[in-house]
Design a protein that fits this description.
This protein is mostly helical. It has 2 domains: about 70 residues, no CATH class; about 60 residues, no CATH class. The protein has 8 helices and no strands.
Length: about 160
Amino acid sequence: MGEVIPDELIAKLKKAELFNQGFATVEYLAASFLDMDWHTITDEKNFIVTDFENASMKRIGLIDEIIPRYRTTYFNHIFGGGYSAGYYSYIWAELLDADAFAYFEQSGNILNKEIAKKYRDFIISKGGTENSMELYKKFRGKEPGIEALLKKRGLN
């Protein structure tokens, strides 16, 4: 008790955070595509649910080793949970979080007061009053990119 955790163990713990991120990311995105596919149907017809799901997964090239996280019949988020065509919002929020934090990191000071003020002025205080992407660009100076999220997940 009271011993300092060795650097080797800390490195192993950090590396373990990235385990299986490729699988988890693809599994999540497959569910997002299935959600979007159901909510962008334009023709009125009856569907065989399993055929629709299989076609959706085939369209994105989902490999057999990654089975869909959800099946339509119990994917409550997309039909009963208020997320219709919005399941992707989880990863979109994570992307925005990673990109905004990268902005602080790139400044050399994660507590950068100027950037924090821009975040408060353009994101926190303006939420919902203007186009969200325009507000983000005012804060960040550009649209968010995927690079920081890929780095965070160890996929870069």
